[in-house]
Amino acid sequence: MADDNIIALTDVEKTFRDFWLRPTVKAVDGLSLTVRRGEVFGLLGPNGSGKSTTIKMILGLLAPTKGSVKLFGLSPRAIAARRKIGYLPELSYLHPFLTARETLGYYAGLCGLDRKTAKDRTAQLLKMVGLEDVAMRPVGGFSKGMARRVALAASLIGKPELLVLDEPTSGLDPVSTKEVKTLVKALKANGMTILTTSHLLADAEDICDRVMIVNHGKTVAEGNVGELGTSLEEFFLAKVGEANEFVLADFLS
Q1: pTM (predicted TM-score)
Q2: Secondary structure of residue 49 in the 3-state scheme
Q3: What pLDDT digit, counting tens, does each position of 205-242 carry?
Q4: Residue 251 and residue 144: Cα distance in Å, rounded?
Q5: How far is CA 50 from CA 15, 57, 86, 135, 189, in A?
Q6: What is the pLDDT of residues 151-196, one digit of tens each?
Q7: Long-range contact set of residues 200-206: C-beta below 8 Å, sequence gap at least 24
């Protein structure tokens, strides 16, 4: 049903232009996708394939050159839509001198939560991400995995209906990666809708219900993870193989 479509993109294009308004890069080229309520949807592709640009248009940070982007049936820039979103960017910039507890309190304030609600949710989230024992430590001394968990908790402080994760396991060690995946599965089990980007097949296979593969801003494949498992692997291996063969041939010539 249309009402179940939390995100809807229709024939979306995004062309970046230079100072003289000349087109330089078409980052997204005729992309259409829907994300349904309660599912984990993976937007997959190599680095530079247009994933982050698509995410920024969904969040209302960029306007599409052509096409339509709807979030909860509204413009992504509508306040009513933005209140329902939590966002974890690929790179999280946390204030190094704030503790984990103070960091979540800061984001609770941005969400307009009253003091009691902010305190309760901060305690709940610190427990959920396993940082209760270090809640009073400055985040500047945290490992990358711990800082990532603080950032994930911050994206959840407003109890969003939609959680957008841009490369959530980027640069993490295997243990931290597993912890983030476990948290995503738990959120999905509790009914949260999640859109995640990744260039790692294992991440998509572990947490996603449906995926879309993009390359050069275009859709290459889309469907349930079980149906596309082989296609995912073959696509990525083919692209990497073609690039390596070209570079090697050019080098040896």
Answers
A1: 0.86
A2: coil
A3: 888 999 888 888 898 888 887 776 555 566 556 654 45
A4: 37
A5: 11, 11, 21, 36, 29
A6: 999 999 999 999 999 988 877 888 888 888 888 889 999 899 999 9
A7: 200/169, 201/44, 201/232, 201/233, 201/236, 203/42, 203/168, 203/169, 203/177, 204/42, 204/44, 204/232, 205/229, 205/232, 206/181
